[in-house]
Amino acid sequence: MRALVVNCTLKPSPARSNTDQLAEVVVDGLQREKVEVERVRLVDLTLKPGVSSDEGAGDDWPAVHDQLLRSKILVVATPTWLGRPSSVAQRMLERMDAMLSETDDAGRPVAYNRVAGVVVTGNEDGAHHVISEISGALGDIGYTIPGQSWTYWNRGPGPGPSYTETAEGHDWSAKTGRAMASNLAAAARALADNPIPAPS
């Protein structure tokens, strides 16, 4: 079983990412479930605008697309900006739109029998809105979204420290992150044993 964690931070490597730090809680939980985990920080890549799986020369998305197809579990991790997912997360979803028309050898949409969850950080509120936006889009593409397959941390209204600058709320975020990992692994195994058939 393989998982892909897609970090949609706006900070290029090697800058420390609050989103990455919380995502690592989920990574640890998945690894405890014997899941092999790959990671990618999208801002380090050149992702051309578009809605296809390959936008031509200089586009790094095809390699990410390959990683998605190798993985039965997808974790999308994003910061909150102005109450919304990051622009990098939006670019990712736009590029994943192409998967709506891609099918496997059995005629199923390629995202069928794959599960997905969401990690959100931010020193402002809006986490549930961000989770809903990303989960809804991934469901449209064909991913299965298990119950409570999310975790988040936010500071609440007004300015304040970021995730890595305070210990406030970390215990709750870690607990829900571990539950998220367990739920994703369980649902992925259930689908492996009883896959969703191709649409009639």
TrEMBL record:
Classification via InterPro entries: Flavoprotein-like_sf (IPR029039), FMN_Rdtase-like_dom (IPR005025)
Q: Which GO terms describe its molecular function?
A: oxidoreductase activity
Q: Source species, please?
A: Kribbella sp. HUAS MG21
NADPH-dependent FMN reductase-like domain location = 1-133
Put simply, this protein is called NAD(P)H-dependent oxidoreductase
Q: Pfam families from the xrefs? A: FMN_red (PF03358)
Highest taxon in the source lineage = Bacteria
